[in-house]
Amino acid sequence: MIGTVRQKAQIGLYSASLFLATVAVVCRFWSRKITGTKWQLNDYFMLLAYLSVLGLSIAANLAVTQGELGVHVSDIPKRLLPKIIPYNLKMMIVIPFFLVCSSFLVKMSITHFYIILFPNTWIQRICRVQLYLLLGCCIGGIVSCFLMCRPLAYTWNKSIPGGKCFDIKDFWLGISIVGLFFDLSLVILPIPVFWNLRMSWRKKAKLILLFGLGLFICIFSALRVYYDERMNFKDLTWTAAPAVMCTVPEPSLSVVAGCLPITVPLFTRASTAVKSSIMSRSRTILTGSRANGTDRRKSLPPNETNNFQRLHDHLYPMTAIVVSRGSMDRGAGGADETERAGPPVGRRNFASFSGIRVLSEVHVDSEVYEDLGR
């Protein structure tokens, strides 16, 4: 049942996040295909991360539709509470599991991409260490999800004798802080390299912006830490909603940020195709207008033509132009030849050459100017 504004907002947010992640992944692998690039380890990491995001989105939507996430406990009918509360407590295992998988797999994908992108650099050495740390954190987080309570059923059934749990809020807080640290690391690492590249500052800014989108994702991580601390298990269905609303977009947008650098060739080709289509249509319209006699070009008004003055030939005579192509002909085995380009009335009959490079020398006869000066 979806009745509150917070529930409707959750459904819209989770659906939009999943849609963006899906488009990004499709564009990533389409770009790999059109460039003929084989799949790398970072591609497999990203695919697994997307599948985890898909599971996270489904679990969050089920928590809204089946677990009344986004509704005050006091507003839920008492006859439904024995079913609703255990359902949400089970989601306290499922949602963190998919969060850990999706979040750390995305970071592992981006880290491995840096290893390939920056070979034989200090970044590569740091990223190799970071990749192993991320793998260890991912495994540790997954194991912790199923060891929060012993036995596991004690998570949602507190009537089991001898059961105990560690603080779930501390677990969520720890996951958030570790994820935030690695997000900042992936944003900061490539900045010095891009800044030292020999290119314009605008291109540097574009690269830093492209690889620095993770900084925007850090906002969701910080908000999740804040709402984790404010979670109240006495009103779990209401207070857990903001934390989950920050949980789902974080790995979804991380998938988008991790796929964008790979999809640059795809967007470049699409942009070129659009420009070519626009140019082709413009030529078609222009050709049609000329054929129909509707091509109207600007002409000077009659009063503007009076501003031009005729130059007299005896003051500015046209001189003969001499073209020397000796170097070209000698290269072909011929003798040095000099030929006059024609009568001094502006008609220039330059000899045509075949080949890649044409060398010509132009000499202007100055005798006329010397006689004029006398």
From TrEMBL:
GO CC field: membrane
Membrane topology: Multi-pass membrane protein
Rhodopsin domain boundaries: 28-268
Location of region: Disordered: 327-346
Subcellular location: Membrane
Keywords: Membrane, Transmembrane, Transmembrane helix
Keyword Transmembrane applies: yes
Coiled-coil annotated spans: none
Bilayer-spanning residue ranges: 12-31, 43-64, 84-110, 131-153, 173-195, 207-227
One Pfam family hit: Fung_rhodopsin
Top-level lineage group: Eukaryota
Family the UniProt entry places it in: Belongs to the SAT4 family.
Name this polypeptide is given: Rhodopsin domain-containing protein
